Amino acid sequence: MDTIPTLDDMLAARDRIRPHVHVTPVLTSRMLNDLTGAQLFFKCENLQKAGAFKARGASNAVFGLSDAQAARGVATHSSGNHGTCLSYAAGRRGIPCTVVMPRTAPQAKKDAVRGYGARVVECEPSTTSREAVFAQVVADTGAEFVHPYNDPRVIAGQATCSAEMLEQIPDLDAVIAPIGGGGMVSGTCLTLSALAPATRIYAAEPEQADDAARSFRAGHIIADDAPVTVADGLKVPLKDMTWHFVRTHVTDILTASEDEIIAAMQLIWKRLKIVAEPSSAVPLAAILKNRDVFAGQRIGVIITGGNVDLDRLPWTNGDAQ
Q1: Cα–Cα distances in Å, from 243 out to 181, 217, 218?
Q2: Please, are residues 25 and 273 in contact by the beta-carbon 8 Å criterion?
Q3: Which of the four, 29, 68, 72, 316, has the lowest number of CB atoms within 10 Å?
Q4: pTM confidence score
């Protein structure tokens, strides 16, 4: 395992990425507070550059490269948001970028990657296919691999989100974020364990892609190869570095059904008046399902992204795979 990132790495990342990312707003809703019995503070990373929190980690990785490394370009595999955000950061630095994406990834996300000037190479919708195709891309290009989440540079960048949130909303009882591979949750753990150790950290996951929850219960990583869920950004498994943060700092991993995720997504659109993708709705779905865990408390909720295919909304045709 690479070196575990530290608070100093997060602070360095904040300085490095400041010119390239937004300080995102925090929104509240009295109706959602009444519905959950908690005070909810929504950190809107859907309003981040390239539409997702992953712009933070991608920018930290890209702008931390030496000139010699940068000249070879960067590459990654991604179901969407990390690829889009790495493409964004590479474009800002003027270097090549290649993204391996499942052929089933939302067309809007493929278009966004290409829109930032990157090359898309498609693979089958499984971790096995993704990693095999990606290995060939790196062999062909010599590009610097920026892993979507199991990378200390990426985790340090994602950790800047919760540092901002602590400045915007102090004295949070807990923070909850979606979990797939665990990059955002790991960054949250990094920052909160150092700066707000009394604040509990929860992760939220789809029932149909609950490998992180099962890993948490079992005490070791359990990886599913190709789960099917409307939350397309949460299909990837934990890796060693993110597992370190999850097992060390996370209080619990809560799950929600597909219907509960879609209902929570609708609530966010209707009540907060923002576009949030299904993965971003999983924390609210988990809070609604576990009101007793959060009632009467101040809860930070990370809305991780807003990149949706508007032609395939889950409540219009029941299919966002």
Answers
A1: 9, 12, 12
A2: no
A3: 68
A4: 0.93
